[in-house]
Amino acid sequence: MHLTARALLTLALALAACGEREKDHGEGKEAREEHSELSAFELENGIGPVKEKIELGALDQALADKGKAVFEVKCSMCHKMDTLYIGPALGEVTGRRTPAYIMNMILNPQEMVERHPVAKQLLAERMTFMANQNLTREEARAVLEYLRTQAKSPPKP
Questions:
Q1: In angstroms, rounded to a whole number, what is the distance separating the alpha carbons of residues 98 and 93?
Q2: How confident is the model at residue 36 (pLDDT cuts 50, 70, 90)?
């Protein structure tokens, strides 16, 4: 039986995901120890350049419009608002994740999937790495503002 490189990669990721899932659900102590290197802030807000809580005020429609333009060019190939696509649906992401977490995932996806338990779980479920789109912090903030316009529930503080 001959396997293509893509098939081998998919198989390797599937096996790795299964092992990771067993470790996280089996030995709770091991899972906690593995993530003990992360601070409480990092566990809630992600790992990356955003190292402070982002306070959201009133919606800034001009910033959201800029974010929509960035989203359409950089994000919409993999993410839809209400449909699981290549990446997770993002219509309600602001109700599930903190603003800092969302920005860190946008700005630092590689380290997030390597070290953050939630991002690792998403990788195991979707078996697709989020591409680093090399957005600036200002562009990531604009995308966050656009995502706020898509949510039906209030944002997570």
A1: 9
A2: low
